[in-house]
Amino acid sequence: MNFGRGPPVVLNVGGTRYSFSREVLKDFPLRRVSRLHGCLSEQDVLEVCDDYDRERNEYFFDRHSEAFGFIMLYVRHGHLRFVPHMCELSFYNEMIYWGLEGSHLDYCCQRRLDDRMSETCTYYAAEEPRGEPGGGPEGKGRRPPGAEGGKWLERMRRTFEEPTSSVAAQVLATVSILFVIVSMVVLCASTLPEWRAPENRSMEEQSRYTAESVREPSGIIEAICIGWFTAECIVRFIVSKNKCEFVRRPLNIIDLLAITPYYISVLMTVFTGENSQLQRAGVTLRVLRMMRIFWVIKLARHFIGLQTLGLTLKRCYREMVMLLVFICVAMAIFSALSQLLENGLDLGAKNKDYASIPAACWWVIISMTTVGYGDMCPITVPGRILGGICVVSGIVLLALPITFIYHSFVQCYHELKFRSARYSRSLSAEFLN
């Protein structure tokens, strides 16, 4: 097609018509529209648009007309904002269709889009597929090869990943919680002096995985718990859809951090011997043994409260960074002033607790975030006035971002609660059937 002559080009988007000269069409800011200039046949045109009228030289696009109107405002004035009362993701799909990206949006709309995409990805990450092979009208009575195996793997995945998706998932979650609780009780009890008193064992000896310690009740319980967690992790890895995504998930990383130290400690005992210098030092083994405390975080798979906390921190990382910046700036200012007033000026009586700015930082941080421990306090009148200002400033600075974090926490809680109720309804239907 020759776009150098003839009548103007007409774009019909959802019933709204736009007319352009052919020269404007060549360098049009929207990639899909500019592709029309390079079309050499009607077949090429139909790959870009939905229909074409040769007589009127009109191109039809079955898209949202109001959204395209806002996109045209961006073409004319250089500012792209969301359509009021329209879903951000729907408008983003229109942008992608016409060849725009999220970076073309104004900054405020970019924030809305990022938050919306974060919420949607989190909410639908563990949802079941919208449709199953052979589930449509045209696929009834006929399933593709491997459909039964895929359905079985999907059921296994939901059993291990979603504790409320079925009766078997609830039983599995209950057993896993019991193992976590037993493991934590044994770990806490092993640090009590009464636990080691009968055999007069030190912490270094308690940290070793010798043949005698494995035969003890605590060693047997620990080995059983580790075996259960290892088997659970392996099965979840096998039935996962995306192995790379499985390894990158935070909860799975925590599982590895909690399981791996046990095997490392056993291997160190086997290869270094029970009386080696490394074993007698015991520091490495104690650190590895205490890493089992990460098993507590495994409870986040089964409790909405911990999931809500993690999701809130993920969505409010900007507010959390802002809060930390506020505290750091205030800490730098007040620590320098308090050190100057309490120790830097020659007032006859110097406060030894404020001998340096780093030492004063401790007083500032506990004064801004708590009521203070009383281990160090100003003794001069200017220092006490500064301390009062520091406390009041801490209350104000901490209160500013809290509102945003609170609203995000409530939203995350309702989303996860709705998702849990949805799986509970599925569980009730399965139980009745």
What's this, in brief?
By secondary structure, this protein is mainly alpha-helical.
Secondary structure: elements and pairs:
Layout: E1 9-13, E2 16-20, H1 22-26, H2 31-34, H3 42-48, E3 51-53, E4 58-61, H4 65-77, H5 88-98, H6 107-124, H7 147-161, H8 167-189, H9 193-196, H10 203-207, H11 211-215, H12 217-239, H13 243-248, H14 250-272, H15 277-281, H16 283-290, H17 304-315, H18 317-344, H19 357-369, H20 381-432
Parallel strand pairs: 1-4
Antiparallel strand pairs: 1-2, 3-4
Report on the structure:
GO terms for molecular function: delayed rectifier potassium channel activity; potassium channel regulator activity. InterPro entries: BTB/POZ_dom (IPR000210), Ion_trans_dom (IPR005821), K_chnl_volt-dep_Kv (IPR003968), K_chnl_volt-dep_Kv5/Kv9 (IPR003971), SKP1/BTB/POZ_sf (IPR011333), T1-type_BTB (IPR003131), VG_K_chnl (IPR028325), Volt_channel_dom_sf (IPR027359). It is a multi-pass membrane protein. Keywords: Cell membrane, Cytoplasm, Ion channel, Ion transport, Membrane, Potassium, Potassium channel, Potassium transport, Transmembrane, Transmembrane helix, Transport, Voltage-gated channel. Heterotetramer with KCNB1. Does not form homomultimers. The structure is a single chain. The protein has 433 residues and is mainly alpha-helical. It folds into three domains: 9-127, Potassium Channel Kv1.1, Chain A (2-Layer Sandwich), CATH 3.30.710; 162-302, Four Helix Bundle (Hemerythrin (Met), subunit A) (Up-down Bundle), CATH 1.20.120.350; 308-407, Helix Hairpins (Orthogonal Bundle), CATH 1.10.287. It contains 20 helices and four strands. The protein has a four-stranded mixed β-sheet. A hairpin with a 2-residue loop joins strand 1 (9-13) and strand 2 (16-20). It starts with 8 loop residues before the first strand and ends with a helix. Mean pLDDT is 75; it is low at 1-5 and 122-142.
